[in-house]
Amino acid sequence: MQPICTGLIGYGTAGAFFHAPLIAAAEGLRLSAIGSRRTDEIRRDFPEAVAYGDPQALLADPSIELVVIATPNETHAPLARAALEAGKHVVVDKPFTLNAAEAEALIGLADQVGRKLSVFQNRRWDNDFLTVRRLVDDGRLGEVVYFEAHFDRFRPEIKQGWRETEVPGAGLLYDLGAHLIDQALVLFGMPKAITADVTRQRSAARADDYFHLVLDYGHRRAVLHASVLVRDPGPRYLVHGDGGSFVKYGIDGQEAALREGRRPGGEGWGSDDPTLFGRFTDADGTATLIDTLPGRYTAFYDGVATAIRDNVPMPVEAHSARDVIRVIEAAQISARERRSVSL
Known about the structure:
This protein is an alpha/beta fold and 343 residues long. 34% of the residues lie in helices and 23% in strands. The chain folds into 2 domains: 117 residues, 3-Layer(aba) Sandwich (Rossmann fold), CATH 3.40.50.720; 190 residues, Dihydrodipicolinate Reductase, domain 2 (2-Layer Sandwich).
């Protein structure tokens, strides 16, 4: 079977380091074209792909079946709409859109034109999250009453780039919040309410660089936290249930490997340092190290190819990514009005 001709729009950090190598490594996909003004870099990195300086030219290419959008957040909705109207299947980098209304409109349009639509929530395939998910799903933790996830870094200097500016869709909540919220929704579904603290901690920051979200599930709480001023981070995950507790330090290494230019899916891909294996403590107080499952970012685009060819659901369904945006919007209201917001 011929691979699906895929066009990538955007060749910044997301496009060059994440999407392009993962598409190129995917069974069933061919990276046929890239739309970006960085045509020299595209020809250097992927000489077999057509380099379009204008994304509209890529959308007009009749050979392209799937379009991947890896551009600044405020352009996601209009580019996705244009791609669907051009008859393409579409993958959008996270966050899906700036608001739930845009997401709903795209979902409706995809249904109308009969094309697949998905969102790149790649951290569903982080090695540490896969391990947490297995422990929760297997019931080893019992009834989970507390879940805490951190995405802390130390970046005291303001970086260049749109994510650190005041443009719509910039800031840490849209960037890393989209990942942590998605993980919580995968595990527990939509919360009843959210209480959020979103602010700027660095004096020169122009976009939010800190958030602390508390998702209310009745008897359960999910706490999601990120900051750029954490030199000595604590656990990545803390999960407590009536069957025991799980504590995990460190962070999945697939992003670092992609930035180093390693081929996705090669030997040892997604493996964890054994010194970072998480600790499970059962109800009797017996502690055991839990081998971390391998991370599998490659599973996303393999799943996209299967979904298009076999007409099965996408690996990340668009409505689940819309729900992430609903939570982000509620968090913004909560932080601004200093109150809990029902969902």
